[in-house]
């Protein structure tokens, strides 16, 4: 499943090339609670077809009515971008399904130039990070390559949206847990690759849409072009493989690095990396292990849910209470049990 931003942009480009009239709406600002974060996009075709979302559905319904049913598509004529705000009053917030009186502001682009979108998609497909600068008075778009992800921003003159290649997951170890985790990652828009030099594992891989890589993990990480939208998860349970990938991953810009294992094995791994491979407590701060959030998981499917939740939290910059970590939660449970 493709990253939703890329899917929206690709769909808008294809509709425009086919001669359709299209509205591209982007969440510019939010106040209070809102269903979708700033930068979220949706595309609306003049016949009412929609891709992407800017709310839980009610605002999409209003846009469809406003620009298709109510106006017969005439509102899709070329014009400068427009700013529209939903949920200013509590009544309106409830009407549009915005919780707790939330408010959001949309920037609407009418029939954006397909050539600019095509150029943007070519760069994104090549792995580039691109800043899309939209002038609000004219609708002019400028594309600028950048090496640093930036927060979405908008002021009275322009909207800046830094877009990058889709998020990627590299897993080491092609076991049952990896199959469940890969399935969840695909549904969350990640491109997924699995590496395992052991033929008895990699040759029985059964999840479609996942790139299979045969090779030593450290070589694979070096060749993977790891960037800020990459997560690396060691799942082989073989220290010879997992340690190799971690040694490379810890010195990469990956946003998440984790390894499967019990609390004891995770501690032994940390000691091993420090004693034999010159890592330090500081360099190991980025290493998650035991991986996942504590949900009492026992089966590979349940463990995959907890691991995917932790990865998504890291991706979204969510700060989690320490008690949610597997190690801390189990320690607390044991402390309570021993004192009772």
UniProtKB/TrEMBL annotation:
Residue ranges constituting the XdhC Rossmann domain according to the UniProt record: 169-311
Residue ranges constituting the XdhC- CoxI domain according to the UniProt record: 15-70
Pfam families reported in the protein's UniProt record: XdhC_C, XdhC_CoxI
Coiled coil region boundaries: none
Superkingdom of origin organism: Bacteria
Protein name as catalogued: Cytochrome oxidase I
InterPro entries reported in the protein's UniProt record: MoCofactor_Util/Proc, XdhC_CoxI, XdhC_Rossmann_dom
